Structure formats: C-alpha cells, structure tokens
Amino acid sequence: MNLHEQLGALEMGVDQLIQAVVATQAENTPETSADAAASPAAAEHAEHDAAAEQPAITGANPETNAEPAAQQLQPTLEINRPARDEITMTIGNQTVALRPDQISRLIEELSNARASMTPEQPQGIPPGWQFVSTKNPMMAVQKQSNGDRLLVMRHTGHGWVPFTFSPDIVIQMYMMLTNA
Predict the structure, then answer these.
(1) Which helix (H) or strand (E) holds 101?
(2) Roughly what angle, to the nearest 10 degrees, separates helices 100-115 and 3-27?
(3) E strand segments, 13-123
(4) Based on C-alpha coordinates, what's the Rg of the chain?
(5) What mean pLDDT is predicted for residues 126-135?
(6) N or C: fewer beta carbons within 10 Å in the chain?
(7) Which long-range contacts (CB under 8 A, 24 or more apart) does 13-19 make?
(8) What is the pLDDT of residue 125?
(9) Rounded to an integer, what distance in angstroms lies between the CA atom of residue 139 and that of residue 78?
(10) Whole-model pTM over 0.85
(11) Confidence at residue 74, expressed as pLDDT on a 0 to 100 scale
(12) Mapping DSSP to helix (H, G, I), strand (E, B) and coil, where does residue 178 land?
C-alpha cells in the first residue's frame, strides 16, 4: 500500500469517526417545545431517557454559573486494543479499527496539534508518568545555518521526533551525558 492509499484509508477512518459524532449528536438533540406540547407523557419519557444517556456534569461554568450545554451532548471516546497490531476507537456507537500505519499518522497529527495548544506540557516529569523508552535509538543530526543543531531520534512508539538545540544547550547536554 503506497502513501496515498494509506492517507486515503486514514482519512476514511477519520470521516467515519466524524460521521459517528454527528449521528450521535443528532440522536441526542432534545425535542422542540412544539413536539413536547403534543405529547406530555412522551416528552417526560424522552427527558428521562436523555438524562440517563448524558454523562454527569461535575461542575458549573464559572463564567455563567450554568452547566455547559455542549458538554452534555458530547459522546464518549473509547480506545481498545483487540489485537497486537490493531487499535479500535469508538465514539458514541461508531467503531473504527486503526492499523499501525494509521496509528502512526494519527500520533503525528495529534503531536503537531498538541505542540501549539495551551496549557503547555509540564516542565517537569509528572509523578507516576508511565512511558516506553527506546534503547539506542536511530538518530540523525544536522547543523543549522544559525549554529543550532537539529537532532532527530526514532522512538519506537512516537516515530521520528525532532529537537533543535542551541550551541550552549549542546554543551550542557554533552556535560550531562558524560557526568551521568
């Protein structure tokens, strides 16, 4: 399967997830007041069913002191690993299976998006953080025109991860690695 086919398959999987979210939100859309007036018993039953399906809201919006309506309609995301080389993602009642190549693409896209979000990642290692380390990773180094060094290392889970270091940090890193 070439890169274009892989991207097409990933896009199809993402489209399926989006359709599942839209379908779930449409199913959870409350009745209009005209529908409720037509059948009070049906409206009471529908409200009971809708309340049972909604996730519990643990707090109110501090700005308006009201529960955010958008959060009430959000479907849940479930991630499972049915096989060694497969992960399934379920949003609402729609499940999509992702293969390793699709997972790599998803990790890359999520990583790129997360890098621009706030709040930033913690400055220190969070207590209890679990990770998979890569022993003796493949790496490539490139000198930049401003004297910085680009170091790209291959992590078994994250793929190729790039880092740029100023000359001062390269010296600090060398000292840390040789003194450890």
Answers:
(1) helix 100-115
(2) 70
(3) 77-83, 86-91, 94-98
(4) 24
(5) 93
(6) C
(7) 13/96, 13/97, 13/98, 13/102, 16/94, 16/96, 17/89, 17/91, 17/94, 17/96, 19/94
(8) 93
(9) 34
(10) no
(11) 84
(12) helix
